[in-house]
């Protein structure tokens, strides 16, 4: 754990309205969901001690790790805070808001890997995970827990939750990406695909060349600013790929060494699906 914690006042935070997946605000379960601080940073509540320790160690150690090349694809880490809310009292990760500069952020959360439970998960956890997004994980090695998209003419925001994600399969997954990318409304939205593929291939190459890091139940965020569709600004400025959720991360010291075939399989299929949208 970090040596010092920043005290965060409840009146300085609000719910993160652009959250599309993960643990959301739930009074009955006393989970606050992702939060946004008035300074612009994102606060991720740490709900389980073991997973919290794992995620903190990942963020605090990535810069000097064998997989340091992934640093540009990971939200910037600003330490740990402590906060007391009506529904939650505990610690939070303080992270960069990776879509802060977007006027109309379109964001898709894609959980990577056919296996989304870690090697130490109890049988009950394995069983519950196997039942989630069964077809997509089995056939594609990834699933879509949620996304939000702006319509480029009306600026209407539409959100698709886990219920929609669980209805998808290998055949209908293309529809989800087409909707997210506004492919039926803007021909020049195709340039986003090229940018996403380019960044995903860089992540794939980094992970395939190391044997120490294994990621379970980790997600890729695809993000773009709908307000920039049709602009002359390079897509690299307003279309980003980011890796998030490292609570179930294992290194060579705590896991068998070797390529992370589970993660690479899902990433490779994601690249193939996006490539197919260009035709």
TrEMBL record:
As recorded in UniProt, its EC number(s) are 2.7.-.-
EC top class, in one word?
Answer: transferase
What lineage is on file? Answer: Eukaryota, Metazoa, Ecdysozoa, Arthropoda, Hexapoda
**Listed name of the protein:** Kinase
In alphabetical order, the GO MF annotations are: ATP binding; inositol tetrakisphosphate kinase activity; inositol-1,4,5-trisphosphate 3-kinase activity
Would you identify the family this protein belongs to, as annotated?
Belongs to the inositol phosphokinase (IPK) family.
What is the species listed in this Swiss-Prot or TrEMBL entry?
Thrips palmi (Melon thrips)
Gene3D superfamilies attached here? Inositol polyphosphate kinase
Enumerate the Gene Ontology biological process terms: inositol phosphate biosynthetic process
**GO CC term, one of those recorded:** cytoplasm
Keywords recorded for this protein, A-Z: ATP-binding, Kinase, Nucleotide-binding, Transferase
Q: Does the keyword ATP-binding apply?
A: yes
Which reactions are catalysed by this chain?
A: 1D-myo-inositol 1,4,5-trisphosphate + 2 ATP = 1D-myo-inositol 1,3,4,5,6-pentakisphosphate + 2 ADP + 2 H(+); 1D-myo-inositol 1,3,4,6-tetrakisphosphate + ATP = 1D-myo-inositol 1,3,4,5,6-pentakisphosphate + ADP + H(+)
Q: Which domain of life is it from?
A: Eukaryota
